[in-house]
Amino acid sequence: MRCITADGFRGLPSPIGHLAIVAIAERLVADIPDACLEVVPGADHYLPLRAPDRLAELLLARLW
Q: Is the four-CA dihedral 12, 17, 23, 29 of positive or negative sign?
């Protein structure tokens, strides 16, 4: 299974919630075979809206 975990919280001010999300992303990548972690700074929960071109690039790269 190919899995992309996208982290848009790095580089944002770090309330506790953001740190927990970063930790979850790292744990997912550690636990899922063939997973990769892609950091998209500043995208937060709205990755498809804040960085649609980057998201499409990441998805297409992992499909092939």
A: negative
